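To close the section, here is one more complete example, presented without commentary so you can practise reading it yourself. The ligand is nicotinamide-adenine-dinucleotide.
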Amino acid sequence: MAAQAGVRYSVKNPRTYLENNINGYFNILEACKENKINHLIQASTSSVYGNNNRFPLNENLSTSSPLSFYAASKKSTEVLSHSYSYIYKLPITCLRFFTVYGPFGRPDMALFKFVDKILNNKTIELFNFGNHYRDFTYIDDVTNSIEKIIKKPPKKNIPFEIYNLGSNSPISLIKFLRFIERELGKKAKIKKIKMQKGDIGKTHADNKKLTNRIKYLPKFNTEIGIKNFIKWFKEYK
Ligand SMILES: NC(=O)c1ccc[n+]([C@@H]2O[C@H](COP(=O)([O-])OP(=O)(O)OC[C@H]3O[C@@H](n4cnc5c(N)ncnc54)[C@H](O)[C@@H]3O)[C@@H](O)[C@H]2O)c1
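Output:
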């Protein structure tokens, strides 16, 4: 999990992604090898799919054209994993998360920023004029899946597997914002702006591979997820 996350910040400061995500991940691989770890689970991202538009996105699509340095750094960790898995027989499962949200979510992500700004009467900058689609994935669907996958290390000759972990139900950012407004009982002030550098228009996960492996089925829809986040946010702030 440890990484420098975030697409937008990688445009400003790519070096920190090189140092933390690539060099840092190399240290993790070495530590796992030295300590003969039974199973390494790594957090990767839907960003590796770049501009692929064959939805839903499945694990066999090409991921060799990342659009941001963040995506490039996470893709790099996937290929570093493959080599360690092949050479040292280190079992590694790579999970490609799709926009994870929920309590304790990152302050630079949409849900946190939207709620914070609405409550404080500040203007929300809506990227890509609100036309983004994201496969928002509730945090408990992620953690429950990790718990299950821990017990299932890959067993093949090259013990390395990649799985998408999404919700398989993309929604537009404008609709996402409308759910938040409804839950808060308050309208947002919005300024629609253009697409940000390195960003992608849509994500939509094909989860079949993970479903076959651990009977994965997302349990939390966006409305419940937003409700839970707001409850947490009001107690936390
Ligand atoms: N949140 C998402 O929607 C999302 C989507 C796809 C992938 N991911 C991946 O999931 C993981 C967790 O993301 P998150 O959203 O919880 O981010 P986060 O920033 O909340 O958590 C990352 C943690 O890593 C720590 N860290 C960073 N560099 C480190 C280093 N060199 N040594 C030790 N610790 C370090 C940070 O201090 C932070 O606590 C990341 O690998 C991210 O790339 C997240």
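Once you have examined the tokens, check your reading against these statements. The pocket of nicotinamide-adenine-dinucleotide is lined by residues 1-5, 20, 24, 43, 45, 74, 97, 99-100, 106 (CB under 6 Å). The chain has one domain: 8-236.
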